[in-house]
Amino acid sequence: MARAALFDVDGTLVDTNHLHVVTWWEALRQAGHDVAMHDIHRAIGLGSDDLITHLLGEDRDRDEDGGLTAAHTALYGTYFERLPPLDGAGDLLHELAARGWRIVLATSAGGPELKALRRAIDADDVIAGVASADDVSEGKPAPDPVQRALELAEAEPAQAVFVGDTVWDMKAGRAAGVRTVALLAGGIARADLVEAGAQAVYGDTAELLSQLDTSIFAQMERGE
């Protein structure tokens, strides 16, 4: 049975969370909404519709949603050619693949944004598939993206690890029944990630790579 290493992308493999914060803040500001960047940061990792609901509430004017999403996409798109990978991200994926793990990404990104992220990671040769926003009816914290990633990896939950950087990632992984690893690179507090279900926490991909032999991945390789 295949072992699957499932990865969120924004804030986990690519250092983009704060770019999303600023571009969502500007999109909201242009539409007349005064939303604190701290609150936007806490919502990063949700799909666009859920993020807007989280920030503006269920009783907002939903006719604005398309314009807000389009504004964010246009603003964020100006960074596509220079998205910075997190230190060690590509090396981590290559090392896990060399150990026999099947690598699948689980992200709310799609289209040109996903292409830009994959270009930044520079590990397409070991990425077996991508569960994107286009593939599921509900985004994180629902388990759907992780479950879709499992299907692509042809793996059972007991044989999978999901690595992410937000509470939404950890809740989605826990709901899908996989083991969960959190990274602090996205700017979310360790205590919040643990409360949401993280079974192990590392600073970033480089730290996880350096400690891979004592990680959950190594434990599973040993059959623990």
TrEMBL record:
Coiled coil: none annotated. Pfam families: Hydrolase. Transmembrane segments: none annotated. Its EC number is 3.-.-.-. GO terms for molecular function: hydrolase activity; oxidoreductase activity. The keyword Transmembrane helix does not apply. It comes from the Bacteria. The keyword Iron-sulfur does not apply. InterPro entries: HAD-like_hydrolase_sf (IPR050155), HAD-like_sf (IPR036412), HAD-SF_hydro_IA (IPR006439), HAD_sf (IPR023214), PGP-like_dom2 (IPR023198). Keywords: Hydrolase, Oxidoreductase. NCBIfam families: HAD-SF-IA-v1, HAD-SF-IA-v3. This is HAD family hydrolase. It comes from Streptomyces mauvecolor.
